[in-house]
Amino acid sequence: MTAFCSRSIGPLLLLSLAALSCGSSRHLQSVTVQPATATAQNGQFQFAATGMFSAPPSPVTLTSKDITWCSGESTSSPNANPNTCVGNVVPFAAVDQTGMATCSPLSHGSGYILAGTQSVGSMNPDGGSQFKVSGYATLTCP
Q: In the chain, how many domains are there?
């Protein structure tokens, strides 16, 4: 009877460990950029991003190792999409990897600032990056 129990418990233990390890991968589910709207002071504004993850700790302030920042379209553009970086098009603003947005010298009005994780192979030089998970805010350049 002992041999039967040890043979039954071995596979059961392995299945239990496998089931536990499958659910333990932590991934980014959403990004929020703060503040949601801002006006550049002296042509610049510092944004911050917070991420919600599938497992604790969550929410977490995101850094350049977690996300990429970019400038999106002007909100006055026809069919403006707050989910796409502008690519090689002259950007409304430049955004560094700390979330500091700097208005382009000729920019006046509002545009999107995005933070997120890039999809593999999503870069279109003329159309910009597509993000797998992202958030955005609106920046106004006076």
A: 1
Residue 43 sits in a domain whose CATH number is 2.60.40
pLDDT tens-digit series, residues 51-102 = 999 999 999 999 999 999 999 888 888 888 788 888 777 788 999 999 999 9
Residue 4 resides in a domain: no
Residue 120: inside a domain, yes or no?
yes
DSSP string for 21-53: HHTT---EEEEEEESSEEE-BTTEEE-EEEEEE
pLDDT classification of 7: cutoffs 50, 70, 90: low
